[in-house]
Amino acid sequence: MKALFIGGTGTISTAISKRVLELGWELFLLNRGSRNKELGTMGKLTEIACDIRAEDEAAIAGKVKASLERSGAGRFDVVADFIAFTQDHVEKDYRIFRDLCAQYFFISSASAYQKPLASYLVTESTPLANPFWQYSRNKIACEDFLLSRYRENGFPITLIRPSHTYDERSVPLGLHGKNGSWQVVKRMLDGKPVIIHGDGTSLWTMTHNSDFARAFTGLMGNIHAIGEAVQITSDETLNWNQIYGAIAGALGVELKAVHVSSDFLSQCGPYDSRGGLIGDKSNSVVFDNTKLKRLVPDFRASVRFDMGVREVVSYVLNHKELQQEDPEFDAWCDRVIAVQAKALKDFNG
Fold it and tell me: Using CB atoms within 10 A as the burial measure, which of 129, 180, 271, 336 is most buried?
């Protein structure tokens, strides 16, 4: 198996890259090379130094074809783009790779499913429509373009819809600032109250990236996955109170939760959380992975969230570079909590 990954060192793709190399497959990474060292020296890895979003299309194609020729192959078995977010991104991919791969993976998003949901149970046939989040609408546009290329030209696509996938570098949360999740973790450690959107009872699914990688590699080279959209998530369903409780438990602290309306939070500055909350995390979702298990019969998500988050917390606490503080978000949390407390006090006299 010869696979080319565009990106390849993000939350989802790092785990997949490692698994591909562990399986003994040949991996080509097309990226800027800033984090490739995290994959070590394991397996058959070829780096193609390139910024696909900035460099000339002909130059990129030349580098790709040169790498293929050196490997003695005419095309890749798989090309997967982990950093395509808009239609122009996949259009460029199509022009470069349409004759160079037997299967092209686009990483879409489960946030593209209709909001509000008509049913909490989500399958690949759930309609795609998200008026609240441009990110999701862009992913839908990418899917539409690729499906048209599959139907009209036979371009061998597989569409992947992840939900909330996490790795050891960041504690997964419902709400955080621009610098990531550390400030919320720090609030917990400092004994400060932490905001949970809504009443904390909406349902959610967290998927460890190692589980995601096993499912993904099971779809690579899988002829039954061509032309299909497949969601990859854990089967474990939690509510947000349980999620935050598991994080506090891993930290060994008491959770001091303050529940605030998602709609209220989405309309408060200083940053826009409307898409991520109203268009995603405030909705209850339960994923039906029947299709994935039919395509990859031996797949089973094995990392339970309370186990996975303990590993994440331990890793983050032992890596100072991941502890990026966010004073602006911290002050915003204090203000929101104070405003709500004052409103309740005023209302109750």
Answer: 180
